[in-house]
Design brief:
Layout (H helix, E strand, L loop, with lengths): L1 H15 L8 E12 L15 E10 L3 E13 L5 E14 L7 E16 L6 E17 L4 E14 L14 E11 L5 H12 L1
Antiparallel strand pairs: 1-2, 1-8, 2-3, 3-4, 4-5, 5-6, 6-7, 7-8
Length: 203
């Protein structure tokens, strides 16, 4: 599994080499994610005890290479009426297949992050912590006036407990899907982008 994880990151970094000289923009978005087991094949089959998390994301991107972070959280109550905070945070690297100035912006990504469950009953000590890596793909729809929206799908390649921590991992699910919407800061319209905007203005 370590070999798979290294291969994914090397592949994305290699593809990204052509984008380091590009114009930079910042993307800020809110997102909602859902998680389910490998045996679940459709979003509507998600069990109630599996996670749906809300949060934010930012990405710094050039023509092809992008990198950033996202954070997700959700509050849950167990059978004994105790409250817990489920949270995730990750760093990702993306390669935008068509660049960042067209109407459609498909990408592939690799990510590395951590996730935890923390009790809120007077103790801030985590009940479980995990490190994980994932690979995935997504599609942005780049709208006029600096707005965008999209969706992504990720598969977790590996999960492990945090070394030296006296607690186990949290047994994360295999798949995560997310939808998001936000704004693009610092973007300038290229010739191709202006063509798309003129087309939608006319029709």
């Amino acid at each position: 599994m370590n070999r798979i994880r290294k291969t994914v990151f090397v592949f994305i970094l290699t593809l990204s080499a052509s984008g380091v000289h590009a114009q930079t923009e910042v993307r800020l978005s809110g997102l909602m994610s859902w998680e389910w087991d490998e045996k679940k094949s459709r979003l509507q089959e998600i069990r109630k005890d599996e996670l749906s998390l809300g949060g934010f994301e930012f990405e710094i991107t050039g023509d092809y290479l992008g990198f950033g972070m996202d954070g997700l959280a959700d509050f849950e109550q167990d059978a004994e009426d105790s409250w817990f905070l489920n949270w995730q945070g990750q760093f990702f690297i993306r390669y935008h297949l068509f660049g960042n100035d067209g109407l459609l912006d498909p990408y592939i990504e690799g990510a590395y992050g951590n996730s935890g469950i923390t009790g809120l009953d007077g103790s801030a000590r985590p009940a479980g912590l995990s490190l994980y890596s994932s690979a995935g793909a997504g599609l942005n729809l780049l709208l006029q006036d600096g707005f965008f929206m999209g969706a992504r799908m990720n598969y977790r390649l590996e999960e492990s407990a945090i070394p030296a921590a006296d607690m186990g991992s949290i047994d994360m699910t295999n798949w995560q899907g997310a939808v998001f919407a936000g704004v693009r800061l610092g973007c300038e319209k290229s010739h191709r982008r202006r063509y798309y905007d003129r087309y939608f203005d006319e029709y």
